[in-house]
Amino acid sequence: MQGMLETALANPWDTLRSILDDPLHPGGREATEELLDRAAVTTGTQVADIGCGAGTSLSIARDRGANVVGVDRSPSGRETVRGDMRQLPLSNNSVEVVLAECVMCLTEQHETALTETARIVEPDGYLALSDVTVEGQLPDLPAPITTGLCLESSRSRQGTIEAIEAAGYDVIDVQNHRDDILAMQEKLEKKVDYEQILGLLGERGRRLLDGIHEAEAAVAEDRIGYLSVVAQRSM
User: Fold this and answer.
1) Is pLDDT at 79 greater than 80 in this prediction?
2) Superfamily of domain 1-233
3) What are the tens digits of pLDDT across the range 150-182?
4) Can you say whether residue 32 is alpha, beta or left, with left for phi > 0 and alpha for psi between -120 and 50 degrees?
5) Which sequence spans correspond to the domains of the chain?
6) What are the angstrom distances between the C-alpha of 225 and each of 5, 65, 93, 117, 129?
7) CA gap 181, 162 in Å, rounded
8) Mean pLDDT (the chain, rounded)
């Protein structure tokens, strides 16, 4: 059992995926559908999904008739290519919409990654982005928690918006998904007995449990949040 726990902690995203439904972000499939609606993704729209992971959002876009390509460091499934968000393997002005769900928080080079999206999207095209946000100073959380919650390189809401604008976009719509992140937290609490499971790891488990409680408090206080932004590339 302890070996299984160590494996789960070593790859918190896969562990979360085994508990929650894809797409693995607050709001799930419904949030992706709404984000695509706001970016006017419909039949024939050329869409690039940056950091597409298992490709669930690609399938959602494809189901509404969009022409899709996914970019990921470990591509899998149909219509995906290997690439890094800081140097996208796509041509200038080659897509109408860039979808970037919960991925910019994974790199410290936000400006480079956002500028790359602006390079590949055509003039007047859209960036449809959602991401974790962090307000103020967070406590020093254990590594599996900061990794699983994508907190290592997250920015504030205002910092995220300013970075998008600096990359060459006009922000036209911003939504706060506080209810979605609270619902995701509640779902995890119902499915996982943290105290019983982490109790098997002794002192390390107690430190992780303290970290979980600190992260939950930060969510409740809106220091950890989630937002979505639709922005149009400036001419």
Assistant:
1) yes
2) Vaccinia Virus protein VP39 (3.40.50.150)
3) 887 889 999 999 999 999 999 999 999 999 989
4) alpha
5) 1-233
6) 27, 31, 32, 23, 14
7) 23
8) 86
Which residues, other chains included, contact 110 with Cβ-Cβ below 8 Å and sequence gap of 6+?
A: 104, 153, 155, 163
CB < 8 Å & 24+ apart, contacts of 12-16? 12/144, 12/145, 12/147, 12/148, 13/147, 13/148, 15/148, 16/148, 16/188
**Tokens for 121?**
């999207």
- For the chain, what percentages of helix, strand and coil (3-state, to nearest 5) are there? 45, 25, 30
- Confirm if 125 and 118 have CB atoms less than 8 A apart: no
Which residue is it, tokens 């809106």?
222
CB atoms within 10 A of CB 208: 21
Q: Where are the beta strands (DSSP E) in the chain?
A: 46-50, 67-72, 80-82, 95-101, 121-134, 169-176, 224-233
Number of other CB atoms surrounding residue 113 within 10 Å: 23
Burial class for 134, CB neighbours closer than 10 Å (0-12, 13-18, 19+)? buried
Beta bridge partners of 170: 232
**Local confidence band at 53 (pLDDT 50, 70, 90 cut-offs):** confident
